[in-house]
Amino acid sequence: MAISTSQSRKDYTREPEQKGYTSNALPLFIKGLEEMKARQILDVGPVCNENINFLAQRVRRLYICDMFIRVDRVRREKLPLHQVWRYLNYPPESFDGILLWGLVGRLDDQEVGRLKEHCYRMVRRNGMVMAIVPSLHETRPLVNSFVIGEDYRLSLRPQPHLDLPLHIRQNWAVLKLFSPFSIVKSFIYRDGIKEFLFRRT
Predict the structure, then answer these.
(1) Average pLDDT for the chain
(2) Following DSSP, what letter does each residue of 102-171 receive, concatenated?
(3) pLDDT tops 60 at residue 55
(4) Contact 132, 138 (CB under 8 A)
(5) 4 assigned to some structural domain
(6) What pLDDT was estimated at residue 10?
(7) Could you tell me the CA-to-CA distances from 115 to 2, 26, 50, 187 in Å, in that order?
(8) Domain of residue 131, CATH code
(9) Which residues contact 145 (CB under 8 A, 6 or more apart)?
(10) All residues at 6 or more sequence positions from 8 whose CB lies less than 8 Å from its CB, including other chains
(11) Domain that holds residue 119
């Protein structure tokens, strides 16, 4: 097993974690990886040590590219947002799985389309993409990381150093944006958070 990172080396004061939920999509994602020989995945952040430790024990090679930090930097510097996608310059069909966490909820439709195109190019056939989408009732603009705990419990850890807009979408809009990926499963939780598990067929 090896870890490859391409992230900013900054240390931030840890904020108190908010209540979370038990993920149904993540164990399906991990189970699907176990059936693949290569088991190489990409985590787009926000990065946290707990997730690195959890994933590194279950995959052969873990790549980390914190796109949240990069999108935030481009926005603060008032640069064209499309420039940020050069960081996802991995070769075609590099990964068996990609974890987007809450990134979809921080991009407009055009940029989600660009993200989807990169994911479709980077993931192998039968590979999976997991995305978490904010609730339709979400009013807090604060970015959170989803920290993996025991029994696939995800805790929300605020990331106050990130200033990104919040985009709320209906389920059908998310599915449309991720075409031609096939939907494997989707889940909605009590607080409205939604998980989507896609597969490249």
Answers:
(1) 90
(2) TGGGGS-HHHHHHHHHHHHHHEEEEEEEEEEE--TT------EEEEE-GGGEEEEEE-TT---------H
(3) yes
(4) no
(5) no
(6) 44
(7) 25, 20, 25, 21
(8) 3.40.50
(9) 45, 46, 47, 48, 51, 101, 156, 157, 159
(10) 66, 69
(11) 15-195
> Distance between CA atoms of 165 and 150, rounded to whole angstroms?
30
**Does some domain include residue 5?**
no
3 lies in some domain:
no
Confidence at 192, pLDDT banded by 50, 70, 90: confident
More confident: 93 or 12: 93
Mean of pLDDT values over 127-151: 88
The secondary element (H helix, E strand) that includes residue 172 is helix 171-177
d(CA 174, CA 168): 10
Which candidate, 71, 162, 154, places its Cα nearest to that of 111?
71
Residues 113, 167 contacting (CB under 8 angstroms): no
Q: What is the pLDDT of residue 3?
A: 61
Residue 146 lies in a domain: yes
Asked if 29 and 83 touch (Cβ cutoff 8 Å), the reply is no
Provide the phi-psi class of 192: left if phi over 0, else alpha when psi is between -120 and 50, else beta.
Answer: left
Number of domains in the chain: 1
User: How crowded is the C-beta side of 51, counted as CA atoms within 13 Å?
Assistant: 24
